[in-house]
Known about the structure:
By secondary structure, the chain is mainly α. 29% of the residues lie in helices and 0% in strands. The longest helix is centred in the first third of the chain and has 14 residues, at 2-15. It is extended, with a radius of gyration of 24 Å.
Amino acid sequence: QTENLRKAMELLNSQQGGGAKEDPASKEYQFWSTQPVPKIGEVITTNEAINPDPPVDKIRAEGYSLPTGFQWDTLNLEDPLVLKEVYVLLNENYVEDDDNMFRFDYSPEFINW
């Protein structure tokens, strides 16, 4: 029994990368190294926009084209039914992690904010 338990623990450790843990600061993070976020250990001394807001005359007046059968729409989030539809759409489709382990649940009030 003890031997079986030891073998099971060894197998579990090998699958989880058991043993000596790698220093997070020395590890290369392929995704995070491309994002505008601080590096591990980086000291932040200012809090400012990544990109400043563009002048209004530089913003497209017309929306981008959409595939046939789709159209742009402006939603009235003050309408509780519309807000509920947006909430359900986001909650059931767009805010879940890749492993389906957790789901963000933004409240309708937060979405309206």
